[in-house]
Every structure is written in C-alpha cells, then in structure tokens.
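Structure tokens please, single chain.
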Amino acid sequence: MPTYEYKCEPCRTIYRVHHGMNEKPTIQCPECDQATSRMISAPSLNVGGFTSPTEAKFAKMSQSEEIARENELQKTYRTIWLPEEAKHNPWEDH
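Here you go.
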C-alpha cells in the first residue's frame, strides 16, 4: 500500500498515511482539527545499487553533514505516522 504525506501548516506537521491509490481520504490534523493538504513526494524506490533512497540522497554527504541537515529539517516540520504505530508484544497473553 502506498504512503502519502499530508501537511498541516498551522501545526507545522507532516502526517504519513498508508492508503490505496484510488482512495481520497480527508485527513484532519489531530492537534488543531483543521484539514491537511496532500503533499507531492518522491516514491520509495531502491535503484542504482543503493540500499535505500535516503542512502542515495545523502551518498555525497558526510555523516555529520547528513545529521546536521536532518536536524535542520526537523526544526521546520515534524513527521508523524497516522494511525500511530501499534506498540504491543505479540508474545504477551491477552
């Protein structure tokens, strides 16, 4: 299932959501309850011998440059998955 990104400008938050290509959900920001706008983002493809798109994107950067860039991006927007990741132990008895 594809991953889509929706942006809430007032909260400066990007929400990542899995849904089908033909679905057109209305994603409300859980914090301010306003409608979000869908962002155009690159697909997640592994090509060119790199193990991930992130590795290809940052291949020419040193590790410290990559960390500094990511820290700067996180100051502007934060990214949250919707719904939140399930946190449970499958080995626990219910």
